[in-house]
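Session log. Operator J.P. requested a structure for one protein chain; no other inputs attached. Running the standard single-chain path with token output.
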Amino acid sequence: MEGKKFENKRKNINKFMRKYPEHRFELIDVKLHQEAILSLVKRWKNFETDGSQDAQSEEEAIELLLQNYEALSKDNDLYCVALFEFDKLIAFCFLRFWINTLSRISAKPILVTIKHMNF
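Structure written below.
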């Protein structure tokens, strides 16, 4: 990411690296981290909104996805990646992978919860 075009991206990355020096990004087992995901969603909902319908709908969608994760991931194409600061979950994303007709692997985020929060 060289050049003036990516200057703001580099600044944001460097700011993140300074703020979260002990971060790690990993593919997670949803069954093992289900409580942490739900806890993060509830904290986000309380922090980000005043009980708006959008936040409530997102929380319900995540709960439904978690309840049905095994059935939804039966083809091994649904994954959850997470960002941790030390051992605390601070962000997650569900991704669905597939191989398209051009034999390229594609990934599409189907649900992202990454918000700046000061806990």
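Operator note: The first helix runs from residue 7 to 19.
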